[in-house]
Design goal:
The complex is a heterodimer. Chain A is mainly alpha-helical. Helix content of chain A is 72%, strand content 0%. The longest helix of chain A is centred in the middle third of the chain and has 34 residues, at 219-252. By secondary structure, chain B is of the alpha+beta class. Chain B has 2 domains: 41-186, Glutaredoxin (3-Layer(aba) Sandwich), CATH 3.40.30.10; 198-241, no CATH class. Chain B has helices at residues 2-21, 51-55, 73-86, 106-115, 132-139, 177-186, 220-224, 227-240; strands spanning 41-44, 47-50, 60-65, 94-99, 124-127, 144-146, 151-153, 157-161, 167-172, 207-210, 215-218. In chain B, the strands form 4 sheets. A 5-stranded mixed β-sheet of chain B has the order 5-4-3-8-9. The longest helix of chain B is centred in the N-terminal third of the chain and has 20 residues, at 2-21. Chain B is elongated. The chains are: A mainly alpha, B alpha+beta. The A-B interface holds A 116, 120, 122, 147, 150-151, 154-159, 175, 189, 192-194, 196-197, 200, 204, 206, 209-221, 224-225, 228, 276, 287-288, 290 and B 15-16, 18-19, 21-24, 26, 28, 30, 33-35, 193, 195-196, 198-199, 201-207, 218, 221-222, 224-225, 227-229, 231-232, 235-236, 239-240, 242-244, 247-249.
């Protein structure tokens, strides 16, 4: 049973995330309209917006997954409210610093801040150190939060039990590991690993920044570390969303909870190991990267994603096929989210294949696939949790008479938005251009069309925000 | 807690002090890359024209020299001349030789052109500019006057400018023909692969170069990629040591 304190904290997370989400969508829409020549942003304005859009989206959906897992872990173990508050405070400070850096300091490297771009100051001098410091603040908060939850899991479950290794042997295990605990454990370990990579990266950046040229970094090492951190974090946040799905989807559908099986255990253990080397697929264009790493990148991309996707799809289908389901906004969001995740995941695996990557790299195919598994995948997992939690906090049932309308608009808006990216990718339109090159100017209409679809998506999110915030605020008036 | 804050602040302050003491100038070929060159007025052939007017007609290679130089300027210009002669005709670009010494006038530059046999070569322009500070600042060139030797202390710098005025490549020192042609290709907006060679300031290089075999071997940088996973294992080990002896199922 969640404490009132945890409900309040989770409510603050939900409200903060949804407000930032709306703002970040607005930035995205403005960028697409600019690419469509409907409005005219300055190049610095566009790239500052692109930077903060990426950083905000990655950040909020990571903490959304963390807040959901933190809340649901309470069902199995005791979680620390103090660490939750610590993470919240540091996240808010970090986000404020990042917004300051981009909008006042005009820092515009993109969220991947690839070396040596942060040192090529086409922005205020203070922006680069403050940007790195902001990442450090966020990293500390999230590391402590992750380690705190993992610590509590290991207080109750031995590592082998948390990894569900007993399910890999023959016979019925004496102790069953809930799927939610397994997924949370492997994800938190992955998060800790990528945050350690981030610490290394920041140390190397600061060392060069303060060394006056006596210490320089290797661009290849910095790019590897950047994607070790960035790619892994972006994937782990997806797994946090899936942990919520495993815990809540059968429950809100009126079905028995998911049981741990050997294949679920195997799939998620594979994910834990292979996701840590899948980031090599970002380096296919780096001709100095050892070829073996490129091969590892491709193989790891398959092994990290396919088993987990297969068992999740199978588990979700096993719940809904030939079973009476109580459909609500929560489980509909989960179900559509799985579909979006799988479609986007296929797009990602196609791009992670070396021969394909030589064609698709840096085209709009890339934002197409990651917007698919985020905007109509992972985001929906977290919205499902938000909706479920808000209904729990608001004291009302889980019925919503507008579920069908909301989902229809969300699917049309989300799908239309990403399809415009896919068509652009098919025509090799380059990504990260504030205005399309002359050769592709006739395709700028796609960008405006994408922005219009995104407006539809935004309208549903604002509607969702108003409903959810109203319910969440009731926690604060509770005795 | 206090100790950690104190140590952190100390490192930050010491680092800031170290940074403040630095020369603030690096001999880096990456410095100012993809930034626009200053649109200064340049004087040659008895006329004053804008640099933008020159590069808008086609990419330009800028060589920064001064006529009274007793050091690198002469061998530098000779090598540029030789490289230009060997380069394919379709790759050649105009070379703008600009003096960064305010004492040099059009007469000195004209005599320099004659000395190199380039006075009637349309591919070469020997010029001066009244805005030399703006020009050298924009390309990241910082000659320092040495009053004892009555000479400028400076490096040999070749700057490639494309037809939009962006610096696409810089070459420091006397460089071989391959490096020179890569500069000529880059100012024609051709993408040039490059990877900085490991040097003594690059502690964590992914490769170490063996001059005897001429091959690269995996270096400490690649090993560093294992560190996050190893440290995470340590974290997991430490966290799992607190496992309650009594099962709480």
């Amino acid at each position: 049973m969640a404490t009132l304190q945890l409900k309040k904290l989770t409510s603050v997370w939900i409200i903060t995330i949804l407000v930032l989400f709306v703002l970040a969508i607005v930035f995205g829409i403005l960028m697409r309209f600019n690419q469509g020549n409907a409005i005219h942003l300055s190049p610095v304005g566009f790239y500052s917006m692109m930077t903060i859009h990426g950083l905000t989206m990655i950040g909020i959906w990571f903490v959304a997954g963390m807040a959901a897992v933190n809340f649901l872990l309470q069902r199995y173990i005791k979680v620390s409210a103090g660490i939750n508050v610590f993470a919240l405070v540091l996240t808010v400070i970090g986000v404020v610093m990042l917004w300051l850096v981009t909008f006042v300091g005009e820092f515009h490297t993109g969220w991947t801040f690839l070396y040596p771009l942060p040192f090529r100051g086409a922005w205020k001098e203070w922006a680069t150190p403050l940007f790195l410091l902001a990442l450090g603040v966020l990293g500390i908060g999230w590391f402590v939060w992750s380690a705190g939850m993992l610590f509590q899991i290991f207080r109750k479950y031995r590592p082998a039990q948390a990894f569900a290794w007993q399910h890999l042997r023959k016979g019925s295990p004496e102790i069953e590991t809930p799927p939610f605990i397994l997924i949370s454990t492997v994800t938190l370990i992955g998060i800790i690993t990528c945050l350690v990579a981030a610490v290394l990266l920041l140390v190397l950046y600061f060392a060069e920044y303060f060394s006056s040229g006596s210490f320089v970094n290797d661009a290849l090492l910095m790019k590897n570390l950047t994607f070790f951190f960035g790619h892994t974090l972006a994937n782990e946040m997806l797994y946090l969303g899936l942990a919520s799905l495993y815990e809540l989807f059968p429950e809100v559908s009126g079905r028995p909870k998911f049981k741990m099986t050997w294949y679920v255990a195997l799939a998620w253990n594979c994910t834990m190991v292979f996701i840590l080397t899948a980031f090599f697929h970002h380096m296919y264009m780096d001709f100095v990267q050892p070829f073996a790493f490129q091969v590892i990148g491709q193989m790891a991309s398959y092994f990290a994603s396919v088993p987990a996707a297969a068992v999740t799809a199978f588990s979700v289908l096993a719940v809904v096929i030939k079973n009476p389901i109580r459909w609500s906004l929560t489980n509909t969001l989960f179900f559509v989210g799985v579909t979006g995740w799988l479609i986007g995941g296929v797009g990602a695996v196609i791009d992670a294949t070396i021969s394909n990557n030589f064609v698709l790299h840096n085209t709009l195919w890339v934002p197409a696939h990651f917007h698919t598994y985020n905007a109509i995948g992972n985001v929906l997992f977290s919205l499902a949790f938000f909706n479920w939690a808000a209904n729990e906090f608001g004291g009302k049932g889980h019925t919503d008479k507008f579920t069908r309308l909301k989902m229809t608009l969300l699917i049309i808006g989300g799908s239309g938005f990403v399809i415009m990216f896919y068509i652009g990718g098919a025509y090799s339109v380059p990504r990260r251009f504030n205005v399309y090159p002359q050769e592709f100017s006739s395709l700028s209409i796609l960008a405006s069309a994408g922005a219009l679809f995104a407006c539809l998506y935004l309208a549903v999110i604002v509607w969702f925000l108003v409903n959810t915030v109203n319910k969440c605020l009731k926690v604060f008036s509770a005795a | 807690m206090f100790k950690s804050i104190f140590c952190g602040l100390s490192i930050f302050c010491l680092g800031a002090v170290a940074r403040a003491q630095g020369p603030g100038y690096v001999f880096s070929e990456e410095d100012k890359i993809y930034q626009k060159v200053a649109d200064v007025n340049i004087a040659y052939d008895g006329e004053v024209r804008s640099l933008s007017g020159l590069y808008s007609q086609g990419p330009v290679v800028i060589a920064l020299i001064y006529t009274r130089c007793s050091g690198v300027c002469n061998p530098f210009l000779l090598q540029v001349k030789e490289n230009m002669l060997v380069a394919d005709s379709d790759e050649r670009s105009r070379v703008l030789v600009v003096s960064f010494d305010p004492r040099d006038g059009s007469g000195e530059m004209r005599r320099l052109a004659i000395r190199y046999g380039l006075d009637n070569d349309g591919g070469w322009i020997f010029a001066t500019t009244p805005q030399i500070s703006e020009l050298i600042n924009s390309v990241g060139f910082n000659p320092v006057w040495d009053s004892v030797r009555a000479q400028f202390d400076h490096e040999a710098l070749l700057v490639g400018i494309n037809d939009e005025g962006f610096i696409t490549r810089k070459l420091t020192g006397l460089r071989d023909f391959n490096a020179f042609t890569s500069l000529l290709r880059s100012i024609r907006n051709e993408f040039i692969l490059s990877y900085p060679l490991p040097n003594e300031n690059m502690v964590f290089s992914c490769f170490s170069y063996n001059p005897e075999t001429g091959k690269n071997q995996p270096g400490t940088g690649l090993l560093l990629l294992l560190l996050p996973a190893l440290l995470s294992l340590v974290v997991v080990f430490v966290l799992s040591r607190r496992h309650d002896r009594k099962p709480r199922f």
